[in-house]
Design brief:
By secondary structure, the chain is mainly beta. 12% of the residues lie in helices and 54% in strands. The protein has two domains: 1-32; 41-267, Beta Barrel (Porin).
Length: 269
């Protein structure tokens, strides 16, 4: 009994020391804490296939001449076009990122408006009425569901888009026909704000590689006011606004699907 009373106090510090060494790593030191999640930046660039919506648009006479109101329905069906895209993403955590994307949608042409201008050009069928060049910018929050060690990284995103419709004009042969009738034309489509959503996937070349292949499908909600004017060429001395013969406007739902295929590069600071 006396031996027990002596050994217990003597062995207690030794037991604590042994348990501390056992909980430490092989070198006898405590293991380091896990590293923080790495912030990455990704740049992607490639080609875009832009497929806009076909829409029936009612064009109304803006002059509101109640004795001679002219309104008509036009079918705006722009062709699908190839363009290009570039985007920059800040991946703040392993599963969340913020992406800014720019898409040049190429030059769309299309539109049919039978009987639209028969009062000026009798018997002429209007097809492929106009052309325009959309520029689409999106800002999205993206979610990556898989572990960052996976070489295939699918994602989903949601955010907003700004679409600017530039270089809008009537087709060249249509402008020539109007000039022969003594008129010129002016077409405006403006810009649009709306929501955007996307689904995509990154294919990484390897765990230690910074390069990847990207494929994505993006939908953007976009509506634009289409306005065109018919203006008398002569007399030139008269102010332009006073020579407007007709002015029509209508709302067009552009709403394109954009399919991207490109390459990307990852880096961090």
């Amino acid at each position: 009994m006396k031996m027990t009373r002596v050994l217990v106090p003597a062995l207690a510090p030794l037991a604590l020391a042994v348990s501390g060494v056992a909980s430490a790593g092989p070198s006898g030191y405590a293991p380091p804490p896990p590293p923080p999640e790495k912030q990455e930046f990704i740049v992607r660039v490639g080609g875009s296939y832009v497929s806009p919506r076909q829409d029936q648009v009612t064009f109304t006479d803006e002059r509101l001449d109640f004795f001679d109101i002219r309104s008509f329905r036009g079918n705006i069906d722009p062709d699908e076009e190839w363009g290009w895209f570039v985007n920059f993403e800040w991946k703040a955590t392993d599963h969340w990122g913020v992406e800014l994307n720019y898409t040049d949608g190429g030059t769309h042409s299309g539109g049919r408006a039978r009987r639209a201008l028969e009062f000026l050009l009798p018997g002429v069928t209007i097809g492929n009425l106009a052309e325009f060049e959309p520029e689409i910018t999106t800002l999205m929050m993206k979610w990556y569901p898989l572990d960052p060690s996976c070489l295939i990284q699918p994602y989903a995103g949601f955010g907003i888009n700004y679409t600017d419709f530039g270089s809008e004009k009537f087709k060249g042969w249509r402008r020539s026909a109007l000039r022969e009738a003594g008129f010129r034309s002016r077409l405006n489509m403006g810009y649009s704000w709306g929501y955007a959503a996307q689904f995509g996937v990154d294919f990484n070349f390897g765990h230690d590689s910074s390069w990847l292949v990207n494929a994505a499908a993006i939908y953007t909600q976009s509506q634009s006011d289409v306005r065109f004017e018919l203006i008398e060429i002569e007399p030139v001395a008269v102010p332009l606004d006073d020579r407007i013969v007709e002015a029509f406007s209508g709302d067009y739902m552009y709403d394109p699907w954009i399919f991207n295929l490109g390459v990307g590069y990852k880096f961090s600071f």
